[in-house]
Specification:
Strand order of the largest sheet: 1-2-6-3-7-18
Largest sheet: 6 strands, mixed
Radius of gyration: 23 Å
Mean pLDDT: 95
Shape: elongated
Helix content: 25-40%
Number of helices: 9
Strand content: 25-35%
Distance between the termini: 33 Å
Number of strands: 19
């Protein structure tokens, strides 16, 4: 640590300087491992593998014992930098300028990881005779990737080790404009489908000798693109289906292709489950398919249902901590995309709260130094109040 930077900002800067683009560990977990081990945490590095996916390193750290068992969850992997020449400051330099810390992952979500690491270390040091419960960290390197060898398997591993969690905060960047704007208390579900149509390749001038699969695909996509799944409710916004790619792999304009592949993703609310929505979409496609069309639909295995957290103690304690530090009363939100909270909710009550997310995944990603410091203060205040409840 330096004399000029707070612990949370220094940790974040150290993490930014680790080029941990999914699936590379990049030194980020090693940095956290040393930091937490030096503070007395029992740290485990766990590697998971699966077919057709990269091997992923993960970190689990814990201190204390008994109840309550609180867990911070997050990820140190980041998305690619894009055009590095377009960055004002090096994406892995951790440059501080005009009160901002610049670098890939500052918002999503090394800033959150740094803030809760600093807060937990402060809390532990304030209790030299032991904390009144247990604090753990679930840190993955696979949140921005396939999300197969990360949090899902780390949760299973922790359960096998005998860990039972009571509550969790995920440090994702939840705030749209200012720190303290919003706590994510739920998320819509996510379902990805791959549709394929098959025909017979041939010359466009001799169409009677070929079977063009494109018109059939257009009918299928039209059926799902135009459907209104629901109107939403007081808890969630309406479900929406977006077609994300259509590909024939055809570079010639005088060839009828043999195959067409299309993908879509649905973000859906609690009026649907993965099962009911899959069946509904398959029926829509089946009804729209022309007679004789050779087609298929496959749903991705990482599909997840929506969830809504009702743990008032967790939500209110965090809300009070945010208001004490920032003066803002956070909105309880279910908007946005998905996060690893969709997996954690099967093990304990979970909410999300982190930094402002305006620059996440962008060129020149950055966050305010003061926000990192305030976020660490919020997490520390939360721990103090949560373990007294």
């Amino acid at each position: 640590m330096t004399d000029t930077l707070s612990p949370a900002v220094q940790i974040c800067r150290d993490l930014i300087r680790c080029p941990s683009v999914t699936p590379a560990e990049g030194g980020a977990l090693t940095t956290l491992e040393k930091l937490l081990a030096d503070a007395g945490f029992n740290v485990s590095r766990v590697m998971f593998s699966d077919e057709n996916t990269p091997d992923i390193e993960n970190l689990f750290a814990t201190i204390g014992s008994g109840k309550p068992h609180f867990v911070f969850a997050g990820h140190t992997d980041v998305v690619p930098v894009g055009d590095e020449a377009a960055w004002t400051h090096g994406p892995f330099d951790g440059t501080i300028a005009d009160g901002m810390l610049h670098g890939r992952g500052t918002a999503d979500m090394k800033g959150g990881v740094a803030a809760f690491a600093a807060a937990a270390i402060d809390y532990v040091r304030a209790h030299p005779d032991g904390i009144p419960g247990q604090i753990s960290f679930l840190i993955t390197g696979d949140e921005e990737g396939p999300a197969i060898n990360g949090t899902v398997k780390l949760l299973e591993w922790a359960k096998e080790q005998g860990h039972v969690f009571d509550a969790c905060i995920v440090g994702e960047p939840t705030n749209p404009d200012a720190l303290g704007d919003a706590i994510k208390v739920g998320r819509r579900g996510s379902l990805t489908g791959t549709v394929k149509t098959n025909g017979t390749q041939g010359h466009v001038a001799y169409q009677h000798l070929a079977d063009n699969p494109v018109p059939g695909m257009l009918k299928l996509l039209s059926a799902v693109a135009e459907v209104k799944l629901d109107k939403g409710n007081e808890r969630f916004q309406p479900s929406n289906l977006e077609i994300t790619t259509v590909d024939v792999g055809n570079t010639a304009t005088n060839v009828i292709p043999a195959h067409v592949m299309a993908k879509f993703n649905i973000r859906f609310n609690d009026q649907w489950s993965v099962s009911s929505l899959s069946q509904h979409i398959e029926k829509l496609l089946n009804d729209a398919a022309p007679d004789g069309l050779d087609w298929s639909i496959e749903f991705a295995r990482e599909a997840t249902d929506s969830f809504l957290t009702h743990d008032e103690a967790l939500i209110q304690t965090l809300s009070n901590s945010i208001k004490t530090v920032t003066g803002r009363t956070p909105e309880l939100s279910t908007g946005g995309g998905t996060s690893d909270a969709r997996f954690i909710k099967n093990y304990c009550a979970v909410v999300e709260f982190g930094l402002v997310g305006q620059t996440m995944h962008k060129v020149d990603e950055h966050v305010a130094v003061a926000d990192i410091e305030q976020l660490a203060d919020i997490y520390l205040r939360f721990l103090q109040d949560y373990f007294q409840a």
